[in-house]
Amino acid sequence: xxxxxxxxxxxxxxxxxxxxxxxxxxxxxxxxxxxxxxxxxxxxxxxxxxxxxxxxxxxxxxxxxxxxxxxxxxxxxxxxxxxxxxxxxxxxxxxxxxxxxxxxxxxxxxxxxxxxxxxxxxxxxxxxxxxxxxxxxxxxxxxxxxxxxxxxxxxxxxxxxxxxxxxxxxxxxxxxxxxxxxxxxxxxxxxxxxxxxxxxxxxxxxxxxxxxxxxxxxxxxxxxxxxxxxxxxxxxxxxxxxxxxxxxxxxxxxxxxxxxxxxxxxxxxxxxxxxxxxxxxxxxxxxxxxxxxxxxxxxxxxxxxxxxxxxxxxxxxxxxxxxxxxxxxxxxxxxxxxxxxxxxxxxxxxxxxxxxxxxxxxxxxxxx
Length: 368
Ligand code: SAH
What we know:
The protein is α/β, with parallel strands linked by helices. 29% of the residues lie in helices and 19% in strands.
């Protein structure tokens, strides 16, 4: 029989159904989830309380492999970027970002991306395929296996490669597994889904799936936004903000509005004023992200004074506004720098094609 079911793809009801499918009792589902998510065990043979017959049945009917680590780089600031290889040889990146008492993992939701934002490195090569829920959850199980005992991945952000809401069904399933008590038990406030603005998909999010939502706005006029983010031609700013305003937000929650500052494009005080007007009726905070340069696009980083002035204007109008620290920039792990060429199946026996050394690159690579 083909072992086609991947157990990381299944939430509790799915796993219960899987066991019932071959005459096993549904409580096996919780046992397996406990091994997987509480103890990080992915070898059926080590799941000792299942009994031998059940373990053998599992071996025949199911898979439980994690993505493989094809390379790892560690930044001077402690950020770790993993290049992971999926079952079919496709590759995506995931980043572990330690910060005081938090450990945030940034996960990918697609191989490549179809959204083609002009400033983003991931979009430069188009979409290759969606990740399955199991491949998304697998990145976190893998990340979790790398942290020292006693510590854990506390936050997950869907801000790696891909547009999560363009892979809605699998992202919703992954969200359910990551947030459930029987899964990784990460509360929804610590699970952030970031979107470039697929307004229709925001509307279609199931009512019980309430991640923190971050929205990459990145411009204050439709003219500029359509130029740098083609998605805006389908869902212009007014529609997008309207959908956000109409959506019920749980108490004490607010949206994160991400705004990549591109030097000379969207970083003027005029933009800051327009942004204040646009956001006036939205419960939100603002994350300013100074553009991180990379070879695939020709934008310029904003002048530090412009960033400061932009932030001060928003703060003055009462918006919580932070300038996102660029973590892992030396290893191209920062926002919008996740790999185009890394995503291709391996073409070189060790690492696959890679960046030319980047200034300050202190890459440590595995598997080479
Ligand atoms: N597709 C989703 C998830 C990716 S999140 C989204 O667009 O929200 C990646 C974030 O990094 C987005 O806010 C994006 O606008 C930003 N970004 C992309 N390229 C960047 C770059 N070169 N420098 C800084 N931020 C960038």
